[in-house]
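G.,

No rush on this.
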Amino acid sequence: MTKGTSSFGKRRNTVHTLHSHCGSKGYHVQKSTCGRCGRNPANRKRKHNWSAEAQRPTTPLGRMCGLRTVYRRLRHGQKTVSCCSIPLILRTSITSHAISVPV
């Protein structure tokens, strides 16, 4: 048994076929997913920003670092919603619909 070039000639079954949505030959028959657009089962189109991934900071070995930039909202903690941030129209509608419980 060889595992190199001679065994590649014995492959006869089709793995990828034409996808009816995007038209590419990337539709995997057994997995029923498209390698190009990512449809079936997902409805969203497959996309990836490779240039943004290349600009991310990495360690010297090439693995990804942790979160370098700590965002302001994360750094100062989650703030609760105050009454002043709610618009005046909503404030009046909230207070006018107060439920009174009979004693």
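When you get to it, here's the other one too:
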Amino acid sequence: KSVVKSAVGGESFFVNTYTAGGSGGWVSLAPSAPGDIMEFHLAPGEEFFMQGGAFMACTPSVDMDTKFQGAKSLFSREGAFFLRAHAPRGVEGKVFYTSYGAIKEIEVSPNAPVVVDTGHVVAFTTGLSYNVSKVGGLGSAIFGGEGLVLEFNGSGKVYIQTRNMESLATRLMPFMPTARSN
């Protein structure tokens, strides 16, 4: 099944549909990186937001599109879009998502905002707003990576991953072969 939305308001992407025959069947899910697979139950009218690489599967009742994060995140290595899973009014659904490493759930309340490195955010629930900000100075950007964080405010949950793919890539870089000139 193809999920098609307008360009900036909802980028086009495709979702495969699997239908069991008369005898029933099952589908196995496997993440592209070692990590958890989690299920999120969407109540009617509820939304759930995920980083692009986190989405794995959903039930047919779930509408999927992208949500542009705006100019505040154009410099984020994680991209300027979140995937939005939405259960239409009167319909429930399930979303399956994955991470690199374990997924940890963090409760956010109006009096307790949560700040997370952009490379560790996997997903978050409706009821949260966020701001992107830079932490540290030039040294943080050079030695610690990009130095961008998301500060979540409101009432809801943020799901983070215990590992960061970009950090792994940075650690492996010295061991990668390089092209040799003749």
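Residues 133 and 149 are 6 Å apart (CA to CA). The helical segments are 138-143, 165-172.

Enjoy the weekend,
O.
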